[in-house]
């Protein structure tokens, strides 16, 4: 999930090349409208988006009992933001620009955990 369409398309293309199915969303509210426990194996989200942030979404998912791995991919390099994400239960916190190999390594690890 990212409010930047180019980022969403690039991530989607990368996952499709790896034969992983992917649903894209431009904001947290759109994801939560579609969310059903067990529908998704992992969430990749930005922090800064219009409306609710990726960190707000992470907290909301944990509040409703979801243990789905959440990988944060963001341009926000502030230690306080990283710390908040990890304390909130993020599986990984990656900063943009990301290397596809690093993202795939974390994603594969998260999917094995499920």
UniProtKB/TrEMBL annotation:
GO terms of biological process kind: phosphorelay signal transduction system
Modification 4-aspartylphosphate, positions: 46
Keyword Cell inner membrane assigned: no
Xref: PANTHER family: CHEMOTAXIS TWO-COMPONENT RESPONSE REGULATOR, STRESS RESPONSE REGULATOR PROTEIN 1
Name the UniProt record assigns to this protein: Response regulatory domain-containing protein
Domain Response regulatory: 1-111
Keywords: Phosphoprotein
